[in-house]
Amino acid sequence: MDNKYLKKTFAIEAECLKKGAEVVNEEQFVKAVELLKDAERIGASGCGHSGIACRHFAHLMCCIERPARFISPAEAVHGGSGYLKKSDVMLFVSRGGKTKELLPVLDICKKKGVYVITITENEKSPLAKGADAVLKQYINRETDKYNSQGTTSTTSACVIFHALQAALIEETSFQNESFALIHPGGAVGERLEGLYK
User: Fold this and answer.
1) Residue 145 sits in a domain of what CATH number?
2) DSSP for 135-158, written as a single string
3) pLDDT tens string 63-120
4) Residue at 167 is within a domain
5) How many structural domains does the chain have?
């Protein structure tokens, strides 16, 4: 085996990120940041790889003291959506925007007055049409030879998450001293040691 898979994977995902920056609507991004900034609580939901990525998003929010949690689609329709109150935010990730497990959760959010942010490739999908802010993804192809594994699409979503966190750090005036308090562990904790008094 040679290194073609390594180089090809980096090339595919690099192309995705380069073009992906061009398709996200800046006005929708600003709106999403405003919704997240004002939310008392934030939920995130998706299926499969998107769901795994949503756990990362929830952790990113917690790291800047925006209370957030992943809500599985199955648990959401069995009481888990009770975590969210009116004017909170639910973020959905669905490449096609039609994930059947998420549609009942969308209905619950609309009935409760929960704002919705959808990250999707399909702006005409039900999850996009039901959203208050839509962040469009660009995915050229997945990295495997069958173009079927949630690889590049997951990377695309995560970079959007990272942009949202970076913007929120600015918009909420989040200070690294606060992060030092909640992240004393690991190499990051060692680097931040002394910031919190």
Assistant:
1) 3.40.50.10490
2) EE------SSTTS-SSSHHHHHHH
3) 999 999 999 999 999 999 999 999 999 999 999 999 999 999 999 999 999 999 999 9
4) yes
5) 1
